[in-house]
Amino acid sequence: MKILVTGGAGYIGSHTCVELINAGYEVVIADNFLNSCPVVLDRIKELTGRDFGFYECDLRDRAPLDKIFAEHKIDAVIHFAGLKAVGESVEKPLEYYDNNLGCTLTLCEAMRAANCKRLVFSSSATVYGMNNPSPLREDMPIGGTTNPYGTTKYMIELILRDLYASDNTWSIALLRYFNPIGAHKSGRIGENPNGIPNNLMPYITQVAVGKLPYINVFGNDYDTPDGTGVRDYIHVVDLALGHLKAVEKIMSGTGIDAYNLGTGKGYSVLEMIRSLEKASGKKLNYKIMGRRPGDLASCYSDPSKALRELGWRAERGLEEMCEDSWRWQSMNPEGY
Ligand code: NAD
Ligand code: WQD
What does the pLDDT read at residue 54? Predict the structure, then answer.
């Protein structure tokens, strides 16, 4: 079975490619390295001992997509490609709408033309917006997003539902990721943010490795056990394995469904700092700052639908997530 992985050179995409290849799938990656670099491809080869197809292309361009579908019999597509920085999306809304919606529309047009109608889409917990209480369930209303990035994910979910309504031979899984962290056990692939990280875990590991002086803790007056924000952190390898289960699901019938990929457990910012201190053996400095605009107090999943319908659940706990994040950061202090 052959899977096209868009954005396969990125953080989640690279881990998913390793698991797909190790499970015996053939993989074709399409990526333009907008937020990744070519060395990732060598690392995937090194970890799997197998080769795969690669096309350097912008997913908004139709011609290379048609070429991929002409040169390979693609059974299903996993669509990771997109821009993902919340703050940047507020500064550059047009670029975010253009890239995230443009990639998805062009990809779906090319898939339809090639009669490949099986798609796994990278959605996000952000589609639940500000108004739903945790634990978040797939049947809760979505929308009310607070930034252009989140709105692109919400809009793409609506677009894909309209697509299915127009042609029910499609089979689509909308995977709503919570907070992916961690890295492959080898320490050879991991998250590689450009510049100063926006997300908590890469920020913490960069403090631990000495690249940044201290962690800014955004608020300690939330209605949570220690006052700091609570999130559902999930090991990126568990997340990757969720994609394999989603592929099995979309191969088995038609329809469109959303699934939370999370652990169902929430940890606070201070718990994350302590856990990374333990994993790294280093004392980490932090400062309490004001709240970050748009942040929720708590955000965690009810992951039971994925267990029920995909047969998937996260197996890796917080300690392992932090050990693996630290191994990646300490082995690659400057990233790739
Ligand atoms: P990433 O930035 O590491 O990977 C995205 C990949 O897509 C990169 O390799 C980038 O070069 C590529 N890309 C972007 N625009 C492209 C284009 N126009 N044409 C071709 N390639 C393009 O991000 P990630 O963390 O691996 O996230 C993957 C997907 O999961 C994204 O859609 C993201 O929005 C979604 N997601 C991520 C998180 C998270 O916290 N990391 C959470 C929820 C959802
Ligand atoms: C986690 C917690 C912060 C940084 C974002 C996107 C979401 C999804 C995942 C893609 C919060 C606190 C953070 C720091 C801190 N991405 N924090 N100091 O905001 O839950 O989710 O990434 O879809 O859409 O919104 O993740 O890692 O930024 O923050 O105190 O330097 O850490 O306030 O409580 P978030 P995060």
Answer: 98
